[in-house]
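User: Before I run my own analysis I want an independent prediction to cross-check against. Here's the chain; please return only the structure tokens and, at the end, one sentence I can use as a sanity check.
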Amino acid sequence: MATTWLNHLVVEKGASPNTVSNYRRDVRRYLDWLADAGIEDLSAVGREHVEAYLAHLRSHLAASSASRALIVARGLHKFALAEGVIVRDVAADVAPPSPAQHLPETLSIAEVAALIEATPSGDAATAVDVRDRALLEVLYGTGARISEATDLTVDDVSDNDGILRLTGKGNKERIVPIGSKAQAAISHYLVRARPVLSRGKTPALFLNTRGGPLSRQSAWVVLKRAAQRAGLGKSISPHTLRHSFATHLLEGGADVRTVQELLGHSSVTTTQIYTHVSADSLREVWHTAHPRA
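Assistant: Structure tokens:
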């Protein structure tokens, strides 16, 4: 049943290899726990067993990890019910724990400018410098995930007319505007730098020094190197520019639904974390500027 469900996620739901790998691990954890409890068949599982499994998870996992593992167990039961393997979904009403909400690390507009401009430009710039600047402009200009940026091809940015098509999680496509600075950086990269890096082997937009597609790990190194050059002194993650993109849009007056579409979030709830960041910024300004703060 577990294998059938995982195959269903790939074929019918378009789940990514990473998602399926994580689900396979979590479903194996659940089935092993049931086996240790003497339960070999999902039809023999009661709600008390699922609740005991959740308690087991909470005893040695963070709330976020326990929540994901329980969601996987619930998904298995839901699929088994739909397939007629069980007659009652005993896991449906067992709620996952609420993970502690951590506000994402963001950069100010000035810090983003410093990050991008710390990469050499003009006559002193190498092909790698030109590539790095284009990558940073795309990440901040579109809110793309690093994997979405590294998956771009030359055709994706040719004659884009100010619009970029990104392929996100589950192979879902979305359209995002791309600003003039990012377009100019891409054009400069295509003319000056990509021909230097290319070995004619791949249509990928961003290339490494061997002429192959730039990996996500290498793109993260680009980001960290730029942060060091800019002297930001902040912990930079692969999502830092994406978080900053969303926060700056909301602070500039964009509504949360628009930002949801631009980020490719399936639920507005995921996007709403950025409204807390913006509220914190407003509160800080108020405390600084209001005479009776």
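Sanity check: Residues 85 and 267 are 30 Å apart (CA to CA).
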